[in-house]
Amino acid sequence: MTDIASPNQAAGKSPGRIVVVTAGGENPWIMVNALAARFADVTVLEEQPESKGLFLRRRARKLGWLTALGQLATMIASRFGKRFTRKRAAEILETYQVSGTPDASVPVRPVNSINDADAIRQIRALDPDVVFLISCRMLTSGTLAAIPCPVLNFHAGINPAYRGLMGGYWALVNRDVENFGATVHLVDAGVDTGGVLYQSRQTPARSDTMHTYPLLQTAASTDIAIAGVADALAGTLRPVDVAGPSRQWYHPPIWTWVWNGLRRGIW
Predict the structure, then answer these.
(1) Quick check: is 38 in a domain?
(2) 3-state DSSP assignment of residue 254
(3) Which of 11, 16, 19 is nearest to 134 (CA)?
(4) Dihedral, CA of residue 18, residue 20, residue 26 and residue 30, to nearest 10
(5) Tell me, what's the pLDDT at 11?
(6) Coil, helix or strand for 106?
(7) Cα–Cα dist 226/231, whole Å
(8) Where in 38-141 does DSSP place strands (E)?
(9) How many CB atoms lie within 10 A of CB 132?
(10) Into how many domains does the chain fold?
């Protein structure tokens, strides 16, 4: 009897079951498309967006209401500002030959939250070899313990110095442009504190802003995501020690963002 290769195998894709967890969006789909082009079996679990009210209350408990409201104002301004950066965004996509348009051939399963029992059931039913996170909720310790395979995360920042949010922006604000980049790391119970697997670094253009920093970091880093997943599939994950300070960052409050933009041209 003659074996017949599956379509994915015939296309030269590597075997392996990968579940990508994300809240969706252009940047995550750049990574999903890159993984789906390399590996045979990729499924997306897409979370529902978190409400702004929940975000605000949680952030206020950590940082106070004034800072939380200032950060929310920056997020709103960022959403409206994206319409003025489409030319630069198109340049980035063209430079790195990537696409953020969802591929209809990649299965997408909606979930409310990765931490819901339903999401965990779906992951177990899919029986992945590796779970890859990008732009999703932080996993609870219970969820992490329930996933019976390596869990990797793509972070748009250089760990451990720029854990959390807006890592590229804060690297520029801190005059630390050599640490403008991205990290693929193992996931543990902390915020971007898991073992570092791979990192990439970029030099942003003068026309880049907070609206395009994450796009640049993602588009330029599909290779380290593929490398991390390939290592997980091969059982050769080797975290590396990264020396230096460790700090969690958040969105800048609107007054900080405007001040750095007007004074130093860092938007």
Answers:
(1) yes
(2) helix
(3) 19
(4) -30
(5) 64
(6) coil
(7) 9
(8) 39-47, 108-111, 130-133
(9) 29
(10) 1
In sequence order, the 6+-apart residues with CB closer than 8 A to the CB of 27 are: 100, 134, 135, 156, 214, 215, 218
The pLDDT, as a whole number, for residue 243 is 87
Query: Token pair of 61, please?
Result: 């408990």
| Domain containing residue 93: CATH number | 3.40.50.12230
- For 7-21, 49-63, 98-112, 253-267, which range has the lowest pLDDT when averaged over its residues? 7-21
Query: Exposed e or buried b for every residue in 229-266, given b needs 16+ CB within 10 A?
Result: bebbbeeeeeeeeeeeeeeebbbbbbeebeebeeeeeb
Q: Is 150 helix (H, G, I), strand (E, B) or coil?
A: coil
**pLDDT tens digits along 126-148:** 999 999 999 999 999 999 999 99
Q: Which residues are CB-neighbours of 58 under 8 A, at least 6 positions away?
A: none
The answer to whether 197 and 238 have CB atoms below 8 angstroms apart is yes
Which residues 6+ apart lie within 8 Å of 32 measured at CB?
20, 22, 42, 44, 102, 103, 106, 134
User: How many CA atoms does the CB half-sphere of 150 hold within 13 Å?
Assistant: 25
Average pLDDT over residues 199-219: 97
pLDDT at 40: 95
- CA distances to 13, 50, 55, 78, 208 from 73, rounded to whole Å, are 44, 16, 12, 9, 20
Quick check: is 10 in a domain?
no
The parent domain of residue 189 ranges over 15-264
Does residue 9 lie within any of the structural domains?
no
What does the pLDDT average to over 208-228? 97
Tokens of 203: 């030099």
* pLDDT tens for each residue of 139-173: 999 999 999 999 999 999 999 999 999 999 999 99
CA angle 159, 153, 16 (to 5 degrees): 140
Residue 137 included in any domain? yes
